[in-house]
Amino acid sequence: xxxxxxxxxxxxxxxxxxxxxxxxxxxxxxxxxxxxxxxxxxxxxxxxxxxxxxxxxxxxxxxxxxxxxxxxxxxxxxxxxxxxxxxxxxxxxxxxxxxxxxxxxxxxxxxxxxxxxxxxxxxxxxxxxxxxxxxxxxxxxxxxxxxxxxxxxxxxxxxxxxxxxxxxxxxxxxxxxxxxxxxxxxxxxxxxxxxxxxxxxxxxxxxxxxxxxxxxxxxxxxxxxxxxxxxxxxxxxxxxxxxxxxxxxxxxxxxxxxxxxxxxxxxxxxxxxxxxxxxxxxxxxx
Length: 286
What we know:
The chain has about 290 residues and is an alpha/beta fold. It folds into three domains: about 1-30; about 35-185 and about 265-285, Roll (Diaminopimelate Epimerase, Chain A, domain 1); about 195-255, no CATH class. Helices cover about 50% and strands about 10% of the residues. The chain has helices at about 1-30, 50-65, 85-95, 130-145, 150-170, 195-220, 240, 250-255, and strands spanning about 40-45, 70-75, 105-110, 115-120, 275-285. It has a five-stranded mixed sheet with strand order 1-2-3-4-5. Strand 2, helix 3 (about 85-95) and strand 3 form a beta-alpha-beta unit. The longest helix has about 30 residues, at about 1-30. The chain is elongated and about 90 Å long.
C-alpha cells in the first residue's frame, strides 16, 4: 500500500515537472520569435525604401542626441497569434528601448499583413506623449498605409512626434517640419461683443421709456417721484447696473481662452539603453 502511495506521489511530481517545463519552453519560444534589433529602423516586413530608412535613422540619431529619446521604427511580416499590443510591449521591453532609469523610449510598430499599427510609449514620455496624442499620430499615418505607402506614413508619424517633443522642450531639430507639432483644437471664446452692444442698447431704450412714464406721473403727482429712493436721472444708470458694472462683467469671457497644451546607414548601432514600458500608447488598424 505504501509502495502504491509512493508511486502515485512520484507520478504527480513528474506530471507537475513536465507541465512546468512545457510552460517554460512555451514562454521561451514565445520570446524567441521576437526579432533582434538591427538598428533604429527595422524593416522586417520589407516594405520600406532604403532612402526612407536612411532619413528616419538620421532623424532618430539626432533626437537621441538632442532630446535623450530613443525611438525604434519596426515593421513585421506577422504578429503570430498575439494582439499587437502584447507583441509591441514584449518587443519594446526585450529590446530595452530608451535610457535606463529615464525610460524615454518609443516604439512605432506596423504589421502590414494584419493591417495594424501600434505606438508604444515608455514611462518617461507618457506625460509629454499621452495616449490621445499618439492616437492622433497613428490616425495621421493610416491614409498612407491604406495606399501601401508605409515609408511616407511612418516618416509623417515620426516627424509629428519629434516636432511635438521639440516644441514642448524648446529645442530645434534639423530637417523636421515644426508645423507638424500636434496641438489639440482650441475652443473659441464666446462671441459676446455684439451681444453686449445689443443688450446695452435695449437697456437704454428701456430706461428712456421708464423715464418718460415716470415723468408723466410726476407732472400729475407733483413731487411724488422725487420722494422715492431714485430720482429721474437715476434711471439712466440702470443699464450699467444691470450689465454688471459695464464690460468688466464679461471680462472672464472676453479675455479668457482655452489653452491646450501645447535602413541603418553608418555610425554603428550599439543597441538600446535599457528603458522600461508600462503599456502607455495607442493602436489601431486600417
